[in-house]
Design brief:
This protein is about 70% helix and about 0% strand. It is built from 16 helices and two strands. The longest helix is centred in the middle third of the chain and has 37 residues, at about 215-255. Helix 7 packs across helix 11 (about 215-255). By secondary structure, the protein is mainly α. It has helices at about 25-35, 35-50, 55-60, 65-75, 85-95, 110-145, 150-165, 165-180, 190-200, 205-215, 215-255, 255-265, 270-275, 280-305, 310-320, 325-355; strands at about 15-20, 20.
Length: about 350
């Protein structure tokens, strides 16, 4: 005897225990323990790839200091010791969140991350909002109109969103909306007057929050206008991925028994997409958010450089130009930790939403 499943949530129900223990608890523990080898591998790769260019002191100051002063600086920093000793010492520093001191401006790398990281965080949040607003609704439209010309147009658009280099999209956006049309600012996070006003009392470093705290709508508007082009440039990259994921998964749910049951009760195709097929299609979106944040952090380097958005990516590009590999190594290691932690949080959220996600 067969029973149709009318409720999509019922199709996702699986036993939460196996062998007398909680599979959810075991899953969370395993995902947490995987953070450590992931971070270790990434930090190790960064450490040894940086060392392929030689020691950081020579890379940054070679040719600018006499040979004896250069040798003295190398000895003081410990870069003349065996590489495996440097590696073990660096691992100890990383696990205490000590990433060294920059060579070009003599700042602790942790301080650089704290100062400029809020700008990158703000940009990534804006970009995620754009990705959700653009990618998910258009994915639903493509699924509802599958195999028709709007679906084909949206699929091609998704490929273009994903395949277009971030710096090229940014330059085109600046040219069209900033130079030709004059609608939007093309650089910075805010104009000078707004920056002075919102930074007067210290602030959080997140300009939108600081602008709202002033109570002046003009400052809020200025901050949002400066964010439009960088957010669109970085957000459309991920919107293309979300569009294709939602379309594919919504179409896939049409073969589920509960969709047939709803259709037999006379539910219209539009409501089937919006109500019955929509929520299950969001599960893959949640599971890939961690990867997309990693992609956005990589894209933030080019986006921030293109729009002179002074965040962590902007500073990373500046340190690369100055060959300050101590700063580069520390920033990349911190980004690796952030990505690993983000993936852990996303995996746990996915496990709570979809009971099928278990080891």
């Amino acid at each position: 005897m067969t029973t149709d499943v009318a409720d999509p949530s019922a199709a996702l129900q699986v036993p939460r225990t196996r062998g007398g223990g909680s599979t959810l608890g075991r899953y969370i523990l395993i995902r947490f323990l995987l953070i450590f080898p992931t971070v270790l591998i990434l930090v190790t790769l960064v450490f040894f790839l940086i060392r392929l260019t030689g020691d950081p002191i020579t890379a940054a100051l070679g040719g600018r200091l006499p040979a004896d002063q250069l040798a003295e600086r190398i000895h003081e920093a410990g870069y003349d010791r065996p590489i495996w000793i440097q590696y073990i010492e660096y691992l100890g520093q990383v696990f205490t969140l000590n990433f060294g001191t920059t060579l070009t401006d003599n700042q602790p790398v942790v301080q650089v991350i704290a100062t400029y990281g809020t700008a990158t965080l703000e940009l990534v949040v804006y970009a995620l909002v754009v990705a959700f607003i653009v990618g998910i609704p258009l994915g639903l439209v493509a699924a509802a109109l599958r195999d028709r010309w709007p679906d084909a147009l949206l699929r091609v658009s998704a490929i273009l969103f994903y395949a277009t280099p971030v710096f090229f999209a940014g330059m085109v956006a600046k040219l069209v909306f900033g130079v030709w049309l004059g609608w939007l600012p093309i650089s910075g996070r805010a104009n000078v007057r707004t920056e002075l006003a919102i930074g007067r009392d210290g602030g959080t470093g997140i300009y939108l929050i600081d602008a709202i705290a002033t109570g002046n709508p003009a400052y809020v508007q200025d901050v949002l206008l400066h964010a439009v082009l960088p957010a669109l440039t970085l957000g459309l990259l991920t919107a293309g991925i979300f569009l294709r994921l939602v379309r594919t998964n919504v179409i896939g749910t049409y073969n589920m028994p509960y969709i047939d049951a709803a259709r037999s009760r006379g539910v219209g195709e539009g409501r089937l997409v919006r109500t019955h097929a929509y929520r299950p299609a969001l599960i893959p979106i949640i599971t890939v958010i961690g990867l997309q944040i990693a992609l956005m952090l990589g894209g933030a380097v080019l986006t921030e450089t293109t729009f002179e958005w002074k965040g962590l990516g902007f500073q990373l590009a500046a340190y690369l130009s100055a060959r300050d590999f101590v700063a580069v190594q520390g920033i990349v290691a911190m980004i690796a930790i952030i990505v690993a932690l983000t993936n852990f949080v996303v995996d746990i959220l996915a496990a709570f939403i979809d009971p099928r996600v278990r080891y």
